[in-house]
Known about the structure:
The complex is a heterotrimer of chains A (197), B (154) and C (165). Chain A is 70% helix and 0% strand. Chain A has nine helices and no strands. In chain A, helix 2 packs antiparallel against helix 3. The radius of gyration of chain A is 19 Å and the shape is elongated. Chain A starts with 10 loop residues before the first helix and ends with a helix. Helix content of chain B is 18%, strand content 46%. Chain B starts with 10 loop residues before the first helix and ends with a strand. A five-stranded antiparallel sheet of chain B has the order 2-3-1-9-8, covered by helices on one side. Chain B has a four-stranded antiparallel sheet with strand order 4-5-6-7, with no helix packed on it. Chain C is mainly alpha-helical. Chain C has three domains: 3-51, no CATH class; 86-123, no CATH class; 124-165, no CATH class. Chain C contains six helices and three strands; from the N terminus they run ααααααβββ. Chain C has helices at residues 3-13, 19-31, 33-51, 62-76, 90-95, 100-115, and strands at 127-130, 135-141, 146-152. The two termini of chain C are 61 Å apart. Chains in contact: A-B, A-C, B-C. Chains B and C meet through helix 1, strand 1, strand 3, strand 6 and strand 7 of B and helix 6, strand 1, strand 2 and strand 3 of C. Strand 8 (133-140) of chain B pairs parallel with strand 3 (146-152) of chain C, so a sheet runs across the interface.
Amino acid sequence: xxxxxxxxxxxxxxxxxxxxxxxxxxxxxxxxxxxxxxxxxxxxxxxxxxxxxxxxxxxxxxxxxxxxxxxxxxxxxxxxxxxxxxxxxxxxxxxxxxxxxxxxxxxxxxxxxxxxxxxxxxxxxxxxxxxxxxxxxxxxxxxxxxxxxxxxxxxxxxxxxxxxxxxxxxxxxxxxxxxxxxxxxxxxxxxxxxxxx
Amino acid sequence: xxxxxxxxxxxxxxxxxxxxxxxxxxxxxxxxxxxxxxxxxxxxxxxxxxxxxxxxxxxxxxxxxxxxxxxxxxxxxxxxxxxxxxxxxxxxxxxxxxxxxxxxxxxxxxxxxxxxxxxxxxxxxxxxxxxxxxxxxxxxxxxxxxxxxxxxxx
Amino acid sequence: xxxxxxxxxxxxxxxxxxxxxxxxxxxxxxxxxxxxxxxxxxxxxxxxxxxxxxxxxxxxxxxxxxxxxxxxxxxxxxxxxxxxxxxxxxxxxxxxxxxxxxxxxxxxxxxxxxxxxxxxxxxxxxxxxxxxxxxxxxxxxxxxxxxxxxxxxxxxxxxxxxxxx
Lengths: 197, 154, 165
């Protein structure tokens, strides 16, 4: 029996076949979107092994819940939501109170971000894309996971405040404060990196 | 059903047959199997915290780098050379907690048993020709890994 | 500028304000240099992020990553009970009559058969059993002459700590 060639099928076709039990079609979806799902997990967890494990778990959950996917969003977007929730669950479980409490103190103390001088010059101007990516990556790594998460969800997942609030299980006010702090901190870090170079 | 062997030479003929068979047994399967087993620690750090651990030899390093493993460095924790007599088994103790047993199944296949802390962990039967390698591995703490590398060298 | 104003500026940037409020903020930006500077900073940061989402590649091969997912999916699904294999040598055992000479002859046939590969083809290419609380999956690299068997069990299991040896 000839093997089906899935590489030329579009996502909706693969999803339909996978929903009918075709594991080969699902494997093609994994191959196509595994980097995106892994990348999202990595940007949240900042740990390669955890990102691999969580993205693997997301795919398995995706298979289990495939019949719940009705095409309201694209398939990779739907699966990204699954990996985001897995990452958030994992972050909640992990006892990173030390790092969180320092950041929380910064916020609670009347907003240290309000004391930061405004960065007047665009610190990323004239940077090549690769170098910009590296600097952003280095700067993101220095944020707490909660501030990084709110940035990832808003800037990369393009979620609205209320969706982020629901996803992170906090108030819209908290989302706004964290986003503001994260952006200001990132601007300062990028300005520092520009000075270093 | 009964069988009766009759021969004009009597028991002498039978003895000769046994001798021939014994000869066949020793010459037909005289080849012992020789192996090298390595216990390897896989990590992305440049040096092992244990100064006794050196990077694995180049051939092993090259083959491990071809595998879909996420580490860039491999350190030899221990290496044992051992022989498995034809039709029998041999054991290599790689650490206090890790042992590998290799049994010759038919000269082409080997049965490899990995034993951890005295308990069997894995048993695998497969062909393993000269120059080929079997790598057993798993995750270790702090995002590192452990590998048992079995190379046939006869 | 107080905290509430700053957050309103951010909401304006993110398109989260109702139209009337958005118009007020736009007018405020036109006359207030400090507000304009802060808005500019927030905008640059936002643009930088949008342009430079880190481009990670999953550091495992397609086959290896898929084999783990496939194994986990298989675990979710009930498997039929395995039927016991019938020994290919059962027919031969029946013929081994307990007289020394005939047994020797049968042994000779077996030895010769092994020597000439009569029976070797009956062994499967590879078989595996994982014990304890482990599960495994296999990757074979024909060109490299290497087979990798990955054993999954808790990382704190002591076999997994050769560096502490």
